[in-house]
DNA sequence: ATACTCTAACTAGTATACAAGGATACTTAG
DNA sequence: CTAAGTATCCTTGTATACTAGTTAGAGTAT
């Protein structure tokens, strides 16, 4: 890791971003476990960088509720907050439903084609059982619809808010999602957009996002220490 | 201003927040004009604080797109981005519409009473022509609905995104809003919630938020240098 | 006069030094 | 033996020193 850092020292201003990205990725993928305390000193030694860029990265993370810092005490990776996660699902469902209606008007042929391509790639991944890549392509699919409608910032907000929910999703990534149904829904959404049928598009999208029923209680018991108890 | 800062030196950890709040307020109320460049050194002299807390405040502001920092060059108060503003209105309309439907189920008697009180206060302000306070009460009204439904974070996101749109609203604050209509709409929303009529509540809220039709072109010509030109 | 080059005075990025509050373990008084 | 107090070592917050790009302007050559 320090090797990569050394390469960044040439261009000033990249270290802070690197620290931020690294920490965020590790938090999201639960290599930095919720509840784990993490000191600046530890990061200094780990990343071979001075405290300043680390502190600035921590400020950003704390603004996104990914860590919690107490003065003179230390920082802790935020526990997963089920209420936060629920609110992020609400946010996503509400906004994407509205955008997909716009998509029926706004998306052109080539964009619809792009979506179809994504679905095809997803089918390929299913047959190859490459679920990691499939996960990415799923995100890419939803993102493309939003960006195509000029809602890049909205997508950014959804992502920002999704930090707690995504960690839950990561916990159950191993478990079997029924990808066949998901792909069928993707195809349905695309064809509704193609046919410019907003009601149908919205309905399919809502079904799609609500499919992800999570056995919260199950996970919460299994990984009790990761969850905020309130 | 430095007097206040001196008082903060007792409790460590408050200076950064003070710098952040101060800058944000001044940007939002256009005392720091869009396009104005602002250096850390200038802030150091203005606030009598070292660069570190200032930098950390700037990091937060830049994450919210309120300033733009170029390495080794400087920071600039972000120009008002009309596309950003439009997207924030879309965000607000979409989310508040959804929440007000929930409100019909979730809000209890005392909460509805609180809303009615707010509207009464607003009427008082109109008769006293205290438009500054009225503006605050308007925000308070919408905020109360969201918080009451457990959507505090959603409200926070709306606020975070509203930075560009709010600056536009500030530009035209002097101009005559038709507060009578606005108050009537508030009353309508409250009674729809009280009667637990989600369709009506949503309709009234949408009308309400769409009332704020801004003569963008007008403002953009008048304050051309404040706006992003793309 | 104009165009070019180099320097000096900026800027922000990074590293380090110092300050102050919190936690813990050890000492000492009861 | 217990409990209070204190010393020491943590933590993060703040200030400052140092580094490296950027820019604007003075001065020179054409």
Automatic annotation (TrEMBL), chains A, B:
InterPro entries per record: GntR_C (IPR011711), TF_FadR/GntR_C (IPR008920), Tscrpt_reg_HTH_GntR (IPR000524), WH-like_DNA-bd_sf (IPR036388), WH_DNA-bd_sf (IPR036390)
Domain HTH gntR-type: 13-80
Pfam families hit by this protein: FCD (PF07729), GntR (PF00392)
Membrane spanning residue stretches: none
Transcription is among the record's keywords: yes
SUPFAM superfamilies: GntR ligand-binding domain-like, Winged helix' DNA-binding domain
Single GO molecular function: DNA binding
Protein keywords: DNA-binding, Transcription, Transcription regulation
UniProt key word Transcription regulation: yes
Full protein name: GntR family transcriptional regulator
């Amino acid at each position: 890791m320090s090797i990569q850092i050394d390469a960044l020292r040439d261009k000033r201003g990249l270290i802070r971003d690197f620290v931020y990205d690294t920490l965020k990725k590790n938090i999201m993928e639960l290599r930095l476990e919720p509840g784990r305390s993490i000191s600046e000193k530890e990061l200094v030694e780990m990343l071979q960088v001075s405290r300043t860029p680390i502190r600035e990265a921590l400020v950003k993370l704390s603004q996104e509720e990914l860590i919690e810092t107490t003065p003179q005490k230390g920082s802790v990776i935020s526990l997963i907050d089920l209420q936060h996660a629920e609110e992020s699902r609400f946010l996503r469902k509400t906004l994407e439903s509205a955008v997909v209606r716009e998509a029926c008007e706004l998306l052109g042929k080539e964009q619809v084609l792009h979506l179809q391509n994504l679905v095809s790639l997803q089918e390929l991944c299913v047959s190859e059982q490459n679920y990691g890549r499939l996960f990415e392509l799923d995100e890419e699919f939803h993102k493309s619809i939003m960006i195509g409608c000029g809602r890049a910032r909205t997508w950014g907000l959804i992502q920002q808010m999704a930090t707690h929910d995504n960690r839950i999703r990561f916990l159950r990534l191993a478990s079997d999602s029924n990808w066949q149904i998901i792909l069928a829904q993707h195809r349905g959404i695309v064809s509704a957009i193609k046919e410019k049928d907003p009601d149908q598009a919205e309905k399919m999208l809502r079904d799609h996002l609500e499919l992800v029923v999570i056995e919260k209680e199950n996970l919460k018991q299994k990984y009790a220490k990761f969850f905020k108890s309130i």
